[in-house]
Amino acid sequence: MNEMTNSWIGKSTIRPDGADKVTGRAAYAADTNMPGMIWGKVLRSPHPHARIISIDTSKAEALAGVKAVVTAKDIVDFPVDTPVPLGIQDMRWMCRNVMAREKALFHGHPIAAVAATTEAIAAEACKLIEVDYEVLPWAIEIEDAIKPDAPILHDFIQFEGKPSNIAGTLEHKLGDIDAGFAKADVVIERDFNTRPIHQGYIENHACLVSVASDGRTTIWSSSQGQFMVRAMTSFLTGLPQSDIRAIPAEIGGGFGGKTIIYLEPLATILSKKSGRPVKMVMTREEVMRATGPTSGSMSTVRIGATKDGKIVAAQGVFYLQAGALPGSPIRGAAGCAFAPYDIPNVVSRGFDVVSNRSKVAAYRAPGAPIGAHAVECVLDELAEALNIDPLDLRIRNAAREGTKAAHGPVYPRIGLLETMEAAKAHPHYKAPLGKFQGRGVASGYWFNAGGESSAQVNITEDGNVVVTTGHPDVGGSRAAIANIAAELLGIDYRRVSVLIGDTATIGYSNLTGGSRVLFASAMVVTQSAEQVIGQLKARAAKLWGIEADAVVWENGEARPSGDHTGNFPTMTLAEIAAKATATGGPIGAGVQLNTTGAEGGFSTHICDVEVDVDLGIVRVIRYTSFQDVGRAIHPAYVEGQIQGGAVQGIGWALNEEYIYNAKGQVDNPSFLDYRMPVCSDMPMLDAVMIEIPNPKHPQGVRGVGEVPLVPVMAAVANAIHDAVGKRFFSLPMSPPKVLEGLDEGTLQAAE
Amino acid sequence: MAKLHVSTTVNGEPSEFLCEASDTMLDVLRGPLGLTGSKEGCATGDCGACSVTLDGRLVCACLMLAVEADGAEIETIEGMSQGEKLHPLQQKFLELAALQCGICTPGMLVAAKSLLEQNMNPTETEVRYWLAGNLCRCTGYDKIVHAVLDTAAEMREAAR
Ligand code: FES
Ligand code: FES
């Protein structure tokens, strides 16, 4: 059944998990049940900021059907003065995020959780829990949180020697900023504002946890990392990791929002206390109030250039909302903002600001879209002031091989310039525009990531292949891994099964995040497959009675070579597998690595909009993304990442935002009022994949999942300016805001 | 209060269940009936992940009371393929990579099938407005719309 070409890399094959997903059989976290299972529910704070004086759970415990109740005293407490890092998270904050400890810090902060025989009884019991709150003044917006007299969320946070809501800072510096600006002929400085945005995955958080009488714990949950689930649950419950088996359910979208846990430790303790398996499923309202989002931001960007369009200095200050506990992605904002450009003098600073809203979670290139929004809008204005085409300005200043970036690296071969040049040459860039239509461009960068990955490649007795890796597959990574394994082994991809192992069946593998999964898993799968091929050759050699290095592996077959060429008929994988027992036993190999060499990703976007000047509605009418994808192992899913990222950015640019009422509560915690893009909002989306292979990867893979979101908001804002002659510096550019910004004068000029 | 008894037909098979008056069809499908292919993304009628048909009409199962199923015919994603043979839409979604995480996919497929049953020759705009009640956060909708349009074209061809 081998196809003639034996070539799968670069083909849009059918994904291994596809048939289950189009028939409704795929099991997501909320789809799993267990005998004897009961239901957990969370009581959440109605206040954005309140001291918890007392919690009385006795009435809830007395309700018929209630089996267990947990409060913060059941969760392991990590004192605030000693960091307990786990990846980029800190368990000091995580233990307070999953359950309010001293204070409730946001509307929706868990206060207690109940497990009962039905969901309805658990919800009823939550209402019976009596909590005595001392309501405190709160600060939600960054400008309110950094005022001198702002309510302080955490006494232990000090900034410049005083109690503060600024929990941390970071600075990247290159060259001499003052000398740089002194050389500039034109300097543009602007202030920007973006809103917190929810990741918006359609699948609500859910888990099912069973703690057996001997403490052995099994967790089925929807996450971007079963090993993260295991480690964090272990930290927060005190169970040893070896007692916890975390099984990754199919995940219904994450975009970074499922790189931390919310329900798992609560369900684990509820299960332990009740002796029953406990299932917990959030409602959409809970997801919107208490999970994610990414930071809102306030930033100022200043860029100076000479008359001929050479950028000589750039300065950025980025304040990011961390939510209730420290840890906003200032590294992404301050680090990625200027990364696409070769600028000799840069200062880029980030400030991590806590405020009374849910603790942020990663969202697709965390922080980078915030930085890019500001920088790319200023560049557009700079191009206008210099009377240079905005793509030409970018091309003139593009980072390339050898450029030293302010955030540290010296770039190897990168494809940024190619994305800009492809955009410039594309018919989209020259297509005519109508009245109140406009075109904007922007570029963007994301670090990408490597890190720990494990794989096991086993040959079945009938000569097929099972590949197991340890990263949840959110967007088609199994399909790409099948392509790689099939290519290396020289067999049809349909003979390769790709599975995601659980924490007990595959070695440690870091999160699905940072655009790392295919980069890292391709490395371990490649090395495993190479070892397997070595074994296959050795087995054939043994059967033929020749040396192993006299055998070559080609098109899924062992063939004698050198002096032995033609002496024996070739042996297929299936023939070798059938004789495995006699030649040394099972054939398979596993590799575990800490992968490096991920190298950043770049993209350039062109956006066309049409503005309804009577209603203020902005419609994206054409969108083309140009991205250096390294090597597109499975082009359709790479394209899918690019298209999906564009639409998320369009939502961020035009509609999405949290609205708070006078009590500091989220007023729009539903898909009706938190307006994500729907099908009828969008045009078709073009994705131009430029393949500049990553020199540090066996297949040339670069991460592709995050950079597609980075340039979008600026591309849209720049297009709106082109359409109506008005610059908007604050997101979302929603109808009321756009309408307010349009006056007769600007419109007449735009006509 | 005693539970209510409902007799209905699900995916062509007679089916009975007991429910509370307040249970939604989605609760019953995912709970007692064990048909977890219909997903809950919002429970407020805003995401379409729970799309099913009720006597041939596309509805959000989360907005339908389970008792309304009495005497009616319900079709869910689990009834879309004929045994091993996928519906052309299911096949096309796979071929064109019109799903990433796949959580919206059952609802999208049920909604798209319902469109093609009434309109074998939809325009891109008609597809986009028909599916406007089905949120997808992963794909940007592009490949979904292509898959529906291509399937419609193939089904028209096959029907000639
Ligand atoms: S769950 Fe029914 S529309 Fe969202
Ligand atoms: S494929 Fe993930 S929501 Fe549509």
Could you write a compact summary of the structure shown?
The complex is a heterodimer of chains A (751) and B (160). With 751 residues, chain A is of the alpha+beta class.
How does this model look, in words?
- The complex is a heterodimer of chains A (751) and B (160).
- With 751 residues, chain A is an alpha+beta fold.
- Chain A folds into 3 domains: 18-25 and 450-595, 2-Layer Sandwich (Aldehyde Oxidoreductase, domain 4); 32-136 and 202-253 and 258-290, Aldehyde oxidase/xanthine dehydrogenase, a/b hammerhead (Aldehyde Oxidoreductase, domain 3, Alpha-Beta Complex), CATH 3.90.1170; 297-448 and 599-750, Aldehyde Oxidoreductase, domain 4, CATH 3.30.365.10.
- Chain A contains 22 helices and 30 strands.
- In chain A, the strands form 8 sheets. In chain A, strands 3-7-1-16-13-14-15 form a 7-stranded mixed sheet, with helices on both faces. Chain A has a 5-stranded mixed sheet with strand order 11-19-18-17-12.
- In chain A, β21 (451-459) and β22 (465-469) form a beta hairpin.
- Chain A is globular, with a radius of gyration of 27 Å.
- The N and C termini of chain A lie far apart (62 Å).
- Chain B has 160 residues and is α+β, with helices and mostly antiparallel strands.
- Chain B folds into 2 domains: 4-79, Beta-grasp domain (Ubiquitin-like (UB roll)), CATH 3.10.20; 88-159, [2Fe-2S]-binding domain (DNA polymerase, domain 1).
- Helix content of chain B is 33%, strand content 16%.
- Chain B has 5 helices and 5 strands; from the N terminus they run ββαβββαααα.
- Chain B has helices at residues 25-30, 88-95, 105-118, 124-130, 142-159, and strands at residues 4-10, 13-19, 51-54, 57-60, 73-75.
- In chain B, strands 2-1-5-3-4 form a 5-stranded mixed sheet, with helices on one face.
- In chain B, α2 crosses α5.
- The radius of gyration of chain B is 16 Å and the shape is globular.
- The termini of chain B are far apart.
- The model of chain B has no long low-confidence stretch (mean pLDDT 97).
- The chains are: A alpha+beta (751), B alpha+beta (160).
- At the A-B interface, α1 and α19 of A face α2, α3, α4 and α5 of B.
- One FE2/S2 (inorganic) cluster binds at residues 40-43, 45-50, 60, 62 of chain B.
